[in-house]
């Protein structure tokens, strides 16, 4: 006779969120703690992003949407904005080749047409190079604001209604989702299952307000440049302890 033991929850394989959103916060504080200028933290943040992307891909995450620059971030000192805007150029040269070898596909969301020319060029090159990759999608939210995204969607829906493409009665949640930047993702991947914010701040700051309606939220005190594979794993373990009901019982 053999004994039959129910598997403990901790022995179960981890369920990996399909889409993770990350608010990468705390770069400035990380640099300050090291008595370095804020931009030093952004550089380290880019390195952390590379490591976390590859770790996420290895864990089986399908989409990583990262908040790299919000519509509000333009109010930072000009020098800092300039530095952040140059990161994609460095990112393309230094980090994209490894991501490409890892079958990562790079995409972006946000009002990207307003980014400086070189910034957009570097991102377009990264996007073109990795266009046919079938692995994890690294989705950069750049010059992104969730409310602005919804305003734009409303404008475009109104235009299409006026052009008689459909009537107001046809508007439903799916229609609205189709007009958001995330429409480039397949339907089952559009909404993040998990949103992580680093550095101890407990808010979403206009990050994917429509798409995160049912996301699990995970906040950690870790500053973004220190966030690594172990930290990602801890977030996924916490996610597995949640009971996602989507309004049901
Ligand atoms: C928030 O930390 C971080 C940002 C506004 C920039 C994030 C950008 C990266 C991590 C690099 C992204 C990579 C590319 C290729 C675009 P903070 O400056 O607000 O930190 P603080 O709250 O400690 O001041």
UniProtKB/TrEMBL annotation:
Active site as annotated: 25, 73
Cofactor annotation: Mg(2+)
Chain residues that bind substrate: 26-30, 38, 42, 70-72, 74, 76, 197, 203-205
Record text on cofactor binding: Binds 2 magnesium ions per subunit.
GO biological process: polyprenol biosynthetic process
InterPro entries, alphabetized: UPP_synth-like (IPR001441), UPP_synth-like_CS (IPR018520), UPP_synth-like_sf (IPR036424)
Keywords: Magnesium, Metal-binding, Transferase
Keyword match Transport: no
EC number, as in UniProt: 2.5.1.-
Residues holding Mg(2+): 25, 216
Family designation: Belongs to the UPP synthase family.
Protein name in UniProt: Isoprenyl transferase
Protein's organism: Streptococcus massiliensis
